[in-house]
Amino acid sequence: MALFYLAYYRHQMLGKLMALYAICLMGFILAVLPEFDSGPRALDIAFGILAITSPALLWVITRYLFVDEPKVDARIWAIIGTYIALRAVGMVVGDDEGLPYLLMFVLPQLAMLGFACHVVYMAVLGLGSDLVEPRRRLRVPFAITMGSIVAIIVGSGFLPLPGQWLFSVYIGAIFLFILFFNLATFRLHKDSPQLIEPVVETALPSLKSRVSERDKDRPLIDRIHALMEDERLYAQPGLTIGELAARVSMQEYRLRKLINQKLHYRNFNQYLNQYRIAEAARRLQSAEESQVPISTIALDVGYASLSSFNKAFKELHGVTPSIYRSRALA
């Protein structure tokens, strides 16, 4: 796995991170091999640090791969640094019982488990709205294999492995998960060599300016745009790409490809936000609606909550809706 990502994606940050994650897994496997029990203590600690780093590293990879705006909050980095430091200290000084055991073993293990669970959550969460087909096909095998591997790593800290047969099953399970993931990745790479290249758009152009007049798909795109504009389909809360495909009498996979490759959206929610935020901005600029609560506007354009509207609006305009309104009316 490490060689594959270094061979094909070494110039991309994600490729380097995946190769490093593979090295962390190798460190973990070496750390649990009985043959290394009598080896140098420093080498055992080094392998252990690689093992405990793998859940956090996998979390960063998952966010970078599946979240189109992958900026990590400083508090998350603090949690990652703290749990790795605590566990590293525990491996050096010992954490057999009492408060040291709680601080330097239990808490780091719980943090690792939390990152593993969130890896699966992030991989599955955007499955329905992802417009990048190769990435969408990778989500389920990624969630199953990588979530399971990290769960094995975390579980090994709490559950001893007595007996050679149980240890063999344990290592065999890791091998099978990695094999399954590698086969899925190789197949997707053959279909789409740019699978893991992230494209993060911060300033999206106008919806109408993305397709040339001479493009053969322009009439179809205009029909979709007219449906969204005339019937305000975007204002329907929880609208899915499957429902939109049914309204325009088109196969869902074709609509995904059309919005992704012609309009350059990687996520269906991002596409909907363009319509929703455009209407909200017009209404926030209107003196006639200056007394209409922002929460009412948010619900009218299709958002289920004010917090999700505020977040989406700020991502596109750089300020909150209230600041935007006050500046526009001033």
Helix content: over 70%
| C-alpha Rg (nearest Å) | 24 Å
- How many domains, in number, for the residues? 2
Described by the principal axes of the CA atoms, the overall outline is elongated
How many strand elements?
0
Q: Biggest sheet, in brief?
A: none
Question: What brief labels describe this structure?
Answer:
single chain, 14 helices, 330 residues, elongated
Structure commentary:
It is a single chain. The protein is elongated, with a radius of gyration of 24 Å. With 330 residues, the chain is an all-alpha fold. It has two domains: 2-191, no CATH class; 207-329, Arc Repressor Mutant, subunit A, CATH 1.10.10.60. It contains 14 helices and no strands. The protein has helices at residues 2-9, 13-32, 41-66, 74-93, 98-125, 133-158, 164-191, 218-230, 241-247, 252-261, 268-285, 294-300, 306-317, 321-329.
At a glance:
The protein has helices at 2-9, 13-32, 41-66, 74-93, 98-125, 133-158, 164-191, 218-230, 241-247, 252-261, 268-285, 294-300, 306-317, 321-329. It is an all-alpha fold.
Helix and strand arrangement:
Layout: H1 2-9, H2 13-32, H3 41-66, H4 74-93, H5 98-125, H6 133-158, H7 164-191, H8 218-230, H9 241-247, H10 252-261, H11 268-285, H12 294-300, H13 306-317, H14 321-329
Helix pairs in contact: 1-2, 2-3, 3-4, 3-5, 3-6, 4-5, 5-6, 6-7
